[in-house]
Structures are given as structure tokens and as C-alpha cells.
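User: Hi! I'm working on a homework problem where we have to compare a predicted structure to a textbook description. Could you give me the structure for the chain below?
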Amino acid sequence: MTFRAVNPATGIALYEFPPLTPFEREALIERVHRQQQQWRHTSHAQRAQFVTALGKALHGHREALAEWLSLEMGKPIVAARAEVDKCVSLCDQAPALAQAALSDDVILHDSVSDVRVQYAPLGSLLAIMPWNFPYWQALRFAVPTLLAGNGVLIKPAGSVPGGARLLDTCFAEARAAARTDDASMPDAPCHMAFIEVEALDGVIADDRIAGVTLTGSDRAGRHVASVAGQHLKKVVLELGGSDPFIVLPDADVALAAAQAVAARTVNSGQSCIAAKRFIVCDAVYDEFLEHFVKGMRDLRVGDPRDEATQIGPIATESVRDGLAKQVADSIAAGARALVGGSAEGLAGFFYPPTVLVDIPDDAPASREELFGPVASVFRVADIDTAIIKANDTPFGLGASVWTRDPALATQCIEAIDAGMVFVNEMVVSDPRYPFGGVKQSGMGRELGPLGFREFTNPKAVRRARLPEAPR
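Assistant: Happy to help. Predicted C-alpha cells:
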């Protein structure tokens, strides 16, 4: 496999970048392993020093990092800068969050014994990362993991090598800055690893790799989990989602519709936590649909380098073609497109903002994840049927519920099968609370106290108090 970048706005190939040779791959794994053996003994303050320096390096390369996102995967430039800024914010917040999450949990402390849980590092870890948020996805795993004392090998997606190389430069600059401030500081074991897909099973099996995380499709997740399981390795999977966005009869409909547009089209619709199924109670269906369709129609589609662009191209031709087929198959099954519905005549890998209604239960738009700016809208009778529809999916990542009634909100929170439920807000990731899902959306958590502890050894320690020796 060659790392190959194509401009999705034009479809023109940009360049190719070769993967590591077997010799280079072995040297990198050994390098991270040796670095982690020293890093695990560093203090929290030393680890935080590197993370803080990383934030400064990211900020220093902000515009270049953003431009790579626009060029290689079509992210609108304003959103690209926002992704870099979010990574900088993570580096600012993470040291304090890690200190709280990784401090000993004291279970018992009395005259007989002291019992506590200590969160020890696991070792060196492999991260297999996606193309849709190349920096944020990598760093929301790597930063907490490094603060826990682990080492990290980050395998970037094959279509975004330019941004990945610049991110690796940021790691190197942060290591140099940390050593300038503290000459005794060992190198942070964090490197981009341009490993071909065909070699990943062998890396997971390597005794120097203690665990693996993957952000990607459920098919890839099953394979990685299977390989990791054969070798009894810790695994965290952040997979797909078909998040419900439920609008109850008492909701602020205009606000819900405006947020629905934003929730469906974040990153041009290419986000696992983007709202994808809009489940609207009959009493407010027509009002919601009128606002929502207008909002989707008014979105500005265009060159991702243009400051005014809201929707860029789909990141790759295969993803665009897959999305187009899902929509076409859904329409053939009986769904109607109120806006959009076809990419015919569009340059590059663009797909227009689309709203589908009257969707049969067995159509792709009802059963599958649609990765792009396509919204599936469903009319339901009441809250009970809304919850049934929300749970009628193999996925369980996030959900958004819109209501003014706290009791109805609680009913939805308790009944919806998802890792995250937001009320009167769109679902977002945040360093302060856990991110992850259930069912085919994956296993394990990133961020928050649970995420900071995910790749640690929760070591139970009991110290018996000996009687004082006679004097």
C-alpha cells in the first residue's frame, strides 16, 4: 500500500508517499519501545511539559496544518482551522484532566491497611487512525495515552500523508522544546508510523505492542479486534454511527432545525457523531421539515479553500460513490429527495446537501450509516415510537433529544441505547467527558476520566500496617 493524496475538490492526484520498509518499521517499533521504557518513569510534570510544548508547536503550524486538511481531504478551511484549534485546546486542558483521572483511588485507609488503585502504564500502543479528523482523532488518543506513561505509534490514513508528516514534525519540535527546558527529559515516545495496511496484523501481534486502538469502519474494527484477541491485547474501537436526532412536540422547533443542519453537515457530513436520522414527532414534523430543508438548501458548497464555503467535497472517490449508491438505492426503494439527491455533473468528489423523506424501513438510508451531507427524516407519532425508531439500528454512538420537558428528556436518556445522549444540543466530543459507543459503534472510551484510564493497568495495592516493633 502506498500513501496517496488526491485533491477531492478536483479529483487530481497530488503525490504518493511510500510506506516504511520492513527494516524501517522494525527500527521504529524498537525506538518507541525503548523510549517508553524511560518515559513510564517520568513525572506527571515532565509529561505535561511535552504536551504543553506540543500545543505550542501545533499553534505555530496552525495555518499549514489547516491547509493540508483542505487540500488532502477537502475540509473547508474555517473548519480545518477549528480542528487544529481544538487540538491545541486539548493540549492545554489535558495535563490537569490527566492528573485528576490518574491519581490513586483510595479504597481504604485505616489503622489496619491502606488500599488503593494505581493507574500504571501499559506500554507501547498502536493507533490506526482515519482520514476525516486526521489531527483530532490522533491526538485525542495520543495525548491522554502519553500522559499515562505509554508510548504511541500512530498509523495515519492512506489519503492524508502530507498532514501526517507535518504532525510528526510537531511531535519532534515538542520533544526538542521539552529537552531545552529540561535536559534530563527523555524523548516522548510518540511518532507517526507510515505502515502499510498489510503489515498491521504483524505489528499488533508484536510483543512490544501492548494494545491497539482503531477509528474506522465496523468491518475494520472486527478484524482488528480479532487479531488483538488472538494475542490477548487490549483494544479500543471507535467505529460508525447512525445517530438519532429526536424532536419532541414541545421542542423549540426553529432552534432544533437550525442545529439539525449543523449536526448533519459537520465536516461536510463525514463524522461518526454527526446526526444522521432525524426522528420528528407528527405534531411538529411539517414545521421542522420546512426550516430544515431551507437550511440544507441554503448551505454554500464549494472550494474548501474559500473562507465562505460550508460544505466541501467528500474526501475520497470511493466514499462519494458509496454514498451516491446508498441514496440512489433508497430513492429506488421509495424514498423522496426534497433537496439534492444526485452528484451528477459535479466536479471532483462533491455530493450536494440532501434531505430524504418517506424512507422505507429496509432502505439504506434507514439501515446504514450515510457518510456525507445526506439527512434521513422520519415522521413518528409520539415519544414512544421515536425511541423505538432511535434504537432500531445496529449502531449506538450518540443521540440528540430536543424537548423542554425534563421528564421527557430523562425518559429518552434512560431508554436510548447509545454511549452519549445530549439534550437540546448537538453531540460533540470534549476532553472533559468520555467519548464512545455501544453495539456496532465500538468498545472502550476516549477522553474524560474513563478515556485517560483506558490504556492503563488499574493496579490494586494493599499495604498492611505492621505492629510497631518493641523498643
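For your comparison, note the following. The mean pLDDT is 97. The CA atoms of residues 226 and 396 lie 21 Å apart. Good luck with the assignment!
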